[in-house]
Amino acid sequence: MIERADQLVLEFVSKVADAAHGRLRPEQRLDYVQRLRASVERARGGSEDARHVAKVIAGFGTPDDLIDREIRRLAAAEHAVQPTAHQAAQPVGEDDTAVFPVVVDDGEPRRGVPPEVADYRRPPPGVSHGRRIARERISRQADRPAPLTRLRRAAMAGGNPMATGGRDARTIFLNNRRETLALVLLVVAGLLVPFRLATVAIFPVPGIVWAAAALTLLSCQGWSFSDRLIGLAAPVVAYAVGGVLLGAARSEGGGVQAFMVSFHNVSGVLFILGTAAAVSWLAFRLLDPPP
Asked: Would the keyword Transmembrane turn up in this protein's UniProt record (predicted)?
């Protein structure tokens, strides 16, 4: 199985989260993992190349080194805040005026409050970054809606989010190009059946295309072996078994010639139906693979 770029990122972030267990508080651990994931995605630049993503991840260092640097950063930040906390703990004299800090979401100043009086409390960096990304995505979708959004959402309605990583059907098919090629060849083999094409030697053209789809399908790693057998057997079984049964029923004991005519009339349609069933099953298993 070829490692996917998204899987490399998730595995790296999971290892860092495991290394932070017991060394950072839960809220610190969650905030750091979110900021690290965002940093990796920015450095990755949207690349789907597993080798490039592996090089990007290697540049961040080992999980233990990352946690050590985060602990030192938190210690330095806490040390810098201690003088301010010490001043706030001093008792207020009779001639002093008590000033209460102003807590404002996202650090936005309140109207009428001088900057030297207001104590602006900012959310953690990971929260601010997540809010900024959410605002950008909402504004981008409002300005330019993506084409076929409803169709793509419908295709992913039954998808497993842990297996798909939250991606849509288009991304999954692009990341599984060999599997997509096998599905396309199966569809082409079914679509060529109604056309009366000349045979190549003694082989019909749809059969040659199906053979190419079979070879491609057997070399795919995105499906289990049983799923690949189902995808290959469905058109053949529908063509052979269904054609024989329906041909015999339609010929009504009219002899071999009548049976062959009936078989020829119904077997092509059954092959198309079997191909449609195989493609539907394989596409479903690719979008929502078994655990």
From this structure: yes
pLDDT (tens digit, 9 = 90+) per residue, 8-50?
A: 888 899 899 898 888 888 889 899 999 999 999 999 888 888 8
- Count CA within 13 A, CB hemisphere, residue 77: 8
**How far apart are alpha carbons 148 and 136 in whole angstroms?**
21
**138 and 176 together in one domain:** no
CB atoms within 10 A of CB 78: 10
Report the share of the chain in percent with pLDDT over 90: 12
Do residue 83 and residue 173 come from a single domain?
Answer: no
Taking the C-alpha atoms of residue 173 and residue 284, their distance in angstroms, rounded to an integer, is: 12
10 Å Cβ neighbour count for 53?
Answer: 23
Range of the domain at 204: 169-287
> Cα–Cα distance between 60 and 175 in angstroms, integer?
25
